[in-house]
Every structure is written in structure tokens, then in C-alpha cells.
Amino acid sequence: MKKALLLLVTIAMFMTCLPMAGAEGTGYPYDGTNEPIRILRVAETRAVDAGYSGWGDTPFFKTWVEKSGINAEVIEVADDAGIMLTLSAGDYPDVILIYESAYNGGLNALIEENLAINLSEYSEYMPDYEAILDSHPSYRPYVTYQGGVRFFANLISPDNIVTRWRDMVVRQDMLDKLDMEVPTTTDEFYDLLYAMKNDLGVENPLMGNMWRDVLFYEGFAATEFGIPTAGSYQIDGQYHYGAYEEGYRGLVSYYHKLYEDGLLDPNFKTTDESTSQASLLNGTTGVHPTTGARINTISARSEDPDFKLVGIGSLNGSDGTRAMFSQLDPLTPKRINAYVTADSKQPELAVAFFNWLYTEEGTIIANFGPEGLCFEYDADGNPVPTDYMLNNPDGMSFDNMLYALSMANGPVYVIRALSMFRFGKPEQRAAMEAWDQNDAALYKLPPYSINDKALADEDAALWTDLNTYIRESMVQFVTGELNTDEDFDAYIAQLKSMGMDRLIEIEQIALDEYYAK
Description:
By secondary structure, the chain is an alpha/beta fold. It folds into three domains: about 1-160 and about 335-415, Periplasmic binding protein-like II (D-Maltodextrin-Binding Protein, domain 2); about 165-325 and about 425-445, Periplasmic binding protein-like II (D-Maltodextrin-Binding Protein, domain 2), CATH 3.40.190.10; about 455-515. Helices cover about 45% and strands about 10% of the residues. The protein has 23 helices and 15 strands. The strands form six sheets. Strands 2-1-3-12 form a four-stranded mixed beta sheet. Helix 11 (about 245-260) packs parallel to helix 21 and helix 13 (about 290-300) packs across helix 19.
């Protein structure tokens, strides 16, 4: 009874976004007399590193079988090619665990080849999964194709801070020396970098190997110039590409000024992460794009007691416009999905087996691993990882232990409780909160796909050349090899001649189909 009460407290505190099943449930545990459900997947090497013969031998998988009461076994192959080889030999399992992109032809091919059956025909066996799909508007369209739910997915709870994990940081001790605040506009950001270089003697005020992601595609300074990002975005369901719009001229001009004035690392094209981190630690850099996880690891390496990193969110417009974009993961990330095949002799049990992962108890265990070994409940009913997970005797990191002993990046409802622990340092949480101060959710594209194979092939062929040209030109505009006054119109004309309008047309067709679902 005490354990049950603790579980209820945990659900109340950390799983407020987890809906109750729309039916009474599937009656776990089953009687355990079924023939084993065969699950095909790429080998989880971290399970072997943790001392187990394979993923199917781990306490997590054994707990899943025990709690659901449904027998299952895991067939592991070396890589995605091994999955294709197994299937081509006619050895079809009940369930395939695989990235959609890893299968030749993607989801459409999986459906056409009966390797992703319509799970909606077995909805009575997945009431918990159905309830979660109905709890947020982005979930069901993501898993629905050709009239039915096609896979068990990795879904992130709406209150989860893990969706904001990368942006800019600045050394707080340098801000203090300059008596400056965290910048919120492009002018303030320039002034900070200028003061670092000229007042503190910082050699390369801005450095980082993630420059292309943060500065361009995640829209760090784009709002001032009227575009959310240099990459893809939407406005009210209309597809846009920032680097094909007039506002991009102002964005690359801004970064060229940083480069020309010596405020951006002159080797920004080739600087690697270790060099960038070392520069941040030794004070030759003061501003650095990074991740929430690396805030902790970088800070731990500093011997300076005053060293502290604080987050800089995407910059607002000088006219008061709230920052439009940033790094923002969808609540439906592209991770390993579970597909039930038409060859399954027990599709009802296969569906019920994976539905267990989305029950209240299953969600906790799928996130943290088995109770006792991987986590314990504290006095307040909160799941807390054990020393075995945090200080593994084999030296494995906490994240690698999660891959070995939980569902990790597979089908699971990722809850805030786990993310709050993974990013538990005050500096990490504060930075991620700063990175959250923008309107990216309004402009972020949903995780749609181009379903028509001919259109998908055409889009891919167009994008190969367009992407190469955009990325090469991006560097040239920053360094000044291309001049925004003299060369920008020709750059736009070149994109047009290469088929950019057609690519946007194809993307719009796919986006319309997604919203029609």
C-alpha cells in the first residue's frame, strides 16, 4: 500500500500531463502463456557495456515482460543493414524497432510492405497509448498515416524542459567585470562582444563549433531582420525558407560586421568543440553556443571559483518584437519507433505489450529503468536514480546507463521528472529557461513527411544542390567574400534558377497534407 501511495504522489507531481486511459485498460498482467513475441532491433551495445548479454537480457526488458505478463524475446542484429538483411530473408518478427529513416523507403515502404500495420484496428489493446495521443494536438497526426495509427512513438510531455537544450551562454564573471547585463537585442549583443575585446582583452569574444546551428538555423539574431530563422519555418501553415528572403540580407550583414570587427572567431568555419571549450575556460572567449548538458561538464573543468555560465536567449527585435525562433525540439522527435508487422501471429498481444510502456507504472519504468536497481522513491514520492546509475562501477555515464536499462530514445512518453534530474544544476535550468523566452512554437514546422515517393525523390534531389550552395554562400557572406550589397540579389537569383520555388511548392504540399490529418 505504501508503494502504491508513493506512485500516486509521483504521478501527481511529475505526470500532470499524462492522461488516464480512455478505457479500463488491458488488464495487466496477462497470464504469460503466450508464445514469445519476437522483437527485431539493432543491438544496444551499451547494454553489453553494462554487463548484460544483450538488451533482452537486461532487468528493464525482464521487468517489462513480468509487469505486462506477456512473453517476448529480442532478436538483435549489428546494424540497420542487418535488419534489412533479416527481413529480405523472409524472417519477419512480430515487431520491428527501427528509425523510420533507416528503412529503405521510409514509413511509406513499411506500410506498403505490411511491416507497419494499422494499429487502430487493435485500439482496445492500447487504451493508454490512445489517451496520450489525444492529450496534445501534435501527437496523433505524427503517428497517423493512411487512415490509422502506424507506430508506437517517442513522445515528450508538453511541460518537459528537454525540448530547449541548446543556445548561447556567456561568462557571468566577464559580465560582472564590465558591469553589463545579459544582452537581449542585436545592438546589446554587439556592445557586449566589443567591450569584451576592447576592455577585457578577450581575443575571440564569440567562438563555437555550433555556430551554423545557433546563429543561423536557430535564429539567434534573426528577429531584428524580420525573419525567424535562416532555415525552414511556417507562418499560419505557409512554408518559408529564411535564407531565400530579403531579411536574410540583414542577418548575414550583421554577422559579417562581427567578423570584420574581430568579435567572431576568425576560424569559425573549422574551430572544433574542444578548442572552443578550452578558449571559454581560459578566457580567450566569453560567449559560446552550447547545450544544457555541457554547461555542467564545462563548469566542472574550471579551476576559477568565479567561473559561471549564464544563458543568452535568442535576441529580441529593437522595436520590442519578441524573439521569434530558437532551438526547439518537437514533442514528437524522430527516434526509434515500434512497428507491428502483418506477419505477427499475436498482433493483439504485441500491441498490448507496447501499450504497457504508456501506462502510469510503465511510463516511470520506461523513463528511469526498474525500481530498486535504477531508481528509488524518495520521502516525497519522487523517483530518484540510484547510485548504480549515477556512479556505475564500470564508469558508464548516467545517459549511457539509461540507454542500457530503460527505453531511452525508443517508444516512451518522456516525462519532466527525468529531464529535471538530467538537467539538475541551477545553472542548467536557468539557462534553459532563458532559452525558452521566444515564440519559436509559432513558427516551428511540425514533423511532417513527403508521402508521395516521386515528390520525395524530387525534393531530395533539389535539396542536395540547394543546401550545398546555401551553406557555402553563408560562409562567404560572413567572411566578406560575397558582399550583401553587390552579390545578394545574384544569390537569390541563383537559388531560384536551382529550383528553390519548386522545393517550397513540394514542401507546402506535404505540410498541407499533414494539417489535413
